Amino acid sequence: MKRFEKHIFVCENKRHDGHPRGCCFDKGSPAVREKFKTRLKELGVNSDIRANVSGCLDACEFGVTVVVYPEQTWYGGVTINDVEEIIQSHIINNIPVDRLLIKDKRFHKDGIKV
Amino acid sequence: MKRFEKHIFVCENKRHDGHPRGCCFDKGSPAVREKFKTRLKELGVNSDIRANVSGCLDACEFGVTVVVYPEQTWYGGVTINDVEEIIQSHIINNIPVDRLLIKDKRFHKDGIKV
User: Model ipTM?
Assistant: First the structure.
């Protein structure tokens, strides 16, 4: 089955104030998701590429977390200033944005390091 | 990159009462997600398989919507009584549950019908 060429999930989990792990919500993830949605629509690709909110992706320590399927590419510490580069490089041209990839080995169980 | 063998997203979008498209939340999706999470933990596979809430997956008319990545399998009208079958058949044995697959052509842009 295929409905979307790319499906982008942006963590918007919110924890209570002072939680030791922090949360993507408080680091600005709603604005990141909104920018993805806005730009995809402006580019006219929003029927093939969708950006969705997700619950906790358990990558809290890396900052605002974004995972792109079907390739399962994990980005950490994403800000609104990174969205255009992710769209142009990865989403449209299939070249992941290396500097934002999560390097932790837990995200590389296939053994393919970035 | 690979962190999860399977990543299950359950729509928990909530619309206002009386909205013509309805919403997964009001059809019981929080309980569906909770059952996925509980069973994956009980089965001891929750480090490789994750169930997450997602925002609107735009399949409202098919009932509670679940999409499984990386294979992008779309299920509609999922109830808590379907969760065990999806886990045992699809998640563990890679055999999608045919009766729950969304048949609409928009979900088969690859031309592969179920």
Answer: 0.95
